[in-house]
Amino acid sequence: MIIDYDKIQKEEIMNFRGGEGLLTTQNFIDGKCKIMMSRLAPGASSGYHKHEGNCEIVYIFSGKGHFTYDDGREDIQAGSVHYCPMGHSHSMHNDSADEDLVYFAIVPEHH
After folding, report:
1. Which residue in 28, 79, 99, 105 has the fewest CB atoms around it within 10 Å?
2. Each residue of 64-88: pLDDT tens digit?
3. Which residue from 35, 34, 10 is spatially nearest to 23, judged by alpha carbons?
4. Residues 107, 84: Cα–Cα separation, whole Å
5. Are strands 22-29 and 56-62 parallel, antiparallel or unpaired?
6. Could you give the strand order of the β-sheet that contains 49-50, starting from the edge strand earlier in sequence?
7. What's the whole-model pTM score?
C-alpha cells in the first residue's frame, strides 16, 4: 500500500499534547498504526506524554532539536532516529529560531 501525503489534508495543531507552538501534520490512521509526516515550528514542542498501548519511532528529515526522554535529554538533527518504547515517556522540542523540525513518525498499536 502506498500512502500518498499529497492526498492527505494538512492539520494545524496549536500546543500539541500540552506543548507549545504550532505542529503541522498529515496523518494516515487505520486503527492499527498511525503514520505521520509532520513539521514542528521554530521554538515549538510537543507535550510530555507516556506511550501506553503503543510505541513511537521518529525519523528526523531536517532541523535540530531535542527529545526529553524519561528523565534525560537526547539531541536530534537530520538523520536521527528516536524510539520511545511502550511504557516510556517523551516530548519533542524544536530548538531552532528559524527552521522547522521536519519528521516522519510511526506509532503502531500493541493491542
Report:
1. 79
2. 999 999 999 999 999 999 999 999 9
3. 10
4. 10
5. unpaired
6. 49-50, 89-94, 64-69, 72-77
7. 0.95
Hunting for cell 492539520 — which residue is that?
Answer: 11
Any residues with CB less than 8 A from the CB of 100 and at least 6 apart, and which?
39, 40, 41, 42, 62, 63, 94
The cell numbers describing 79, all together, are 538523520
Residue 39 backbone dihedrals phi, psi, to 5 degrees: -135, 125
pLDDT digits (tens, 9 = 90+) for 12-37: 999 999 999 999 999 999 999 999 99
Do 91 and 84 form a contact (C-beta atoms < 8 A)?
no
Q: Kindly report the three-state secondary structure assignment for every residue of 38-107.
A: EEECCCCECCCEECCCECEEEEEEECEEEEEECCEEEEEECCCEEEECCCCEEEEEECCCCCCEEEEEEE
Interatomic CA distance for residues 31 and 57, integer angstroms = 17
Pairing outcome for strands 64-69 and 33-40: unpaired
